[in-house]
Amino acid sequence: MIDTLYIAADHAGVDLKNALKAHIEKKIIVYDLGTDSSNSVDYPDYAEKVCQALKQNNSARGVLICGTGIGMSIAANRHRHIRAALCATPEAAKMARLHNDANVLVLGARVLDTAQALAIVDAFLATDFEGGRHAQRVAKFS
Ligand code: RB5
């Protein structure tokens, strides 16, 4: 289990972000990088905040939330040090860690309910990278 998580959302994901943050900070340190209200914002700006934080702390992980999760995924994966996985099930989140060493979990607040999102985050945080044959594949990203 890692000890630090950076989380951010746009206006579509702010309520889910707040719910996840309350859950996760019982276990690990959570840095909330916004947004803080339902006022409309641009999701790339919030993806950027988490990606920059992970550049400084490469043992941490991130969670990004927008309406579908698609915009945040596109924005985050433009960074070479980011492996962002848009997950809709705990099984996908587990595999994203085991096989892809994903360092950012992306969630769609308009396609998941809170219970589903909590289960996905728990799977993401609880699972370590398997390494082995997957390490050579992940290395090919960069
Ligand atoms: C905001 O309306 C919405 O476009 C955004 O949250 C996200 O779903 C983009 O991919």
Distance between the termini: 25 Å
The count of DSSP E runs of length 2 or more, i.e. the number of strands, is 5
Oligomer: single chain
Radius of gyration: 14 Å
CATH superfamily: Sugar-phosphate isomerase, RpiB/LacA/LacB
Strand content: 15-25%
The topology string of helices and strands comes to EHEHEHEHEHH
- The CATH topology name reads Ribose 5-phosphate Isomerase B, Chain: A
Class per helix and strand makeup: alpha/beta
Shape field: globular
Poorly predicted runs: none
Number of domains: 1
Q: Quick one: CATH class?
A: Alpha Beta
Small ligands present = D-ribose
Mean of pLDDT:
97
Strand order of the main beta sheet, please? 2-1-3-5-4
Biggest pleated-sheet summary: 5 strands, parallel
Classify the helix fraction into a percent range. Answer: 40-55%
SSE order and pairing:
Elements: E1 4-9, H1 14-24, E2 29-32, H2 43-56, E3 61-66, H3 70-76, E4 84-86, H4 90-98, E5 104-108, H5 114-126, H6 133-139
Parallel strand pairs: 1-2, 1-3, 3-5, 4-5
Helix pairs in contact: 1-5, 2-3, 4-5
Bound molecules: D-ribose.
Describe this entry's structure for a reader.
Helix 1 (14-24) links the parallel strand 1 (4-9) and strand 2 (29-32). The protein has helices at residues 14-24, 43-56, 70-76, 90-98, 114-126, 133-139, and strands at 4-9, 29-32, 61-66, 84-86, 104-108. It has one domain: Ribose 5-phosphate Isomerase B, Chain: A, CATH 3.40.1400.10. It is 43% helix and 17% strand. It is an alpha/beta fold. The mean pLDDT is 97. Helix 1 crosses helix 5 and helix 4 (90-98) packs parallel to helix 5 (114-126). The two termini are 25 Å apart. The chain has six helices and five strands, in the order βαβαβαβαβαα. Strands 2-1-3-5-4 form a five-stranded parallel sheet, with helices on both faces. It is globular and about 45 Å long.
